[in-house]
Amino acid sequence: MAKIYKKTSGNGSIALYLGKRDFVDHVETVDIVDGVIKVDPAELEGRKVWVYLACSFRYGSDDLDLIGMNYRKDIWIQRQQIYPAVGTKPANTPMQEALLKKCEDQGHAFTFNIDTNLPCSVGLQPAPEDVGKACGVDYEVKAYIANEADDPEEKINKKDTCRLIIRKIQFAPGTIPAGPQADISKNFMMSDKLVHLEASIEKELYFHGDPIPVKVKINNETAKVVKKIKITIDQTTEVLLYQADKYTKTVLNEEFAEEVKGESTLEKTFTVIPLLSNNKEKRGLAVDGRLKDEDTNLASTTLIRPGMDKGMQGILVAYKIKVNLLVSSGGLLGGLTASDVGVELPLVLMSPKPADVPVE
Known about the structure:
360 residues, 4% helix
């Protein structure tokens, strides 16, 4: 059997088993969440065992809950009664069958189907001095002992629970369209001549950590001098649930000392690589959901399908590449009379689909 993830309640009465913690969104379908709960009925005292799968948005640390502020908003939640068993259940998966043999007569299988319109796991990077759990969207499987599935009057003791955080992830599609192109022509005061700038990327989508070649064409018809070329990549994050909050953070900023004199041209490709490792200090930067302290990367672009409710996504992430030319007049005052010529290109960042993930 492959690696198994297990959490046991503080009183030892229940244990939660999962065969994996990453569940793939294939656009039309999402991997089912299949697991097993081992139940020792000796300490239940007439209570029942339940399990839920919740997609939640966390917008504060646990400390806020101590002063009566709700720091977690459930976007979607499903519950099942595990013990005593009720109703009919779907056929067991091979992983569940293996675990049920391990748990013998105390094992009980459960299966959840995640809605396709729910967001992928994403977090907002905390500052180095921040403590507690980061803001973001996460998924939690939790088994618990209680009289009712969701009675607000019933207080559930922490020792009667066990939980595992899982991730809903999405990989790049198999077919990647051609990349965008943008151009601009700008004239300057007291001159009818133009500076033409064209920028393009080969593909619409690039994988995290891969080099991104940005092709730049400049036709400088003026007497001015292009002193340098600056390429930046911005991440725009829109937080939809607790307030209308939209902000942009630069994840890459590189300058190239390419001088294009008056009445001359330049055609060159500049390679850039946006990396989370170069942005570790930026609080609020969106990153792909992580499990414990494992490494992650910049958040993948949010793909909005037709008919999808944007409000259900919790956090929307988008990227754009900006190419700017610093154009000066030359001479002693050139630096004081410089101006920009710039274009923007949309960029999609995602993770590649591993070879062992089947195509849906």
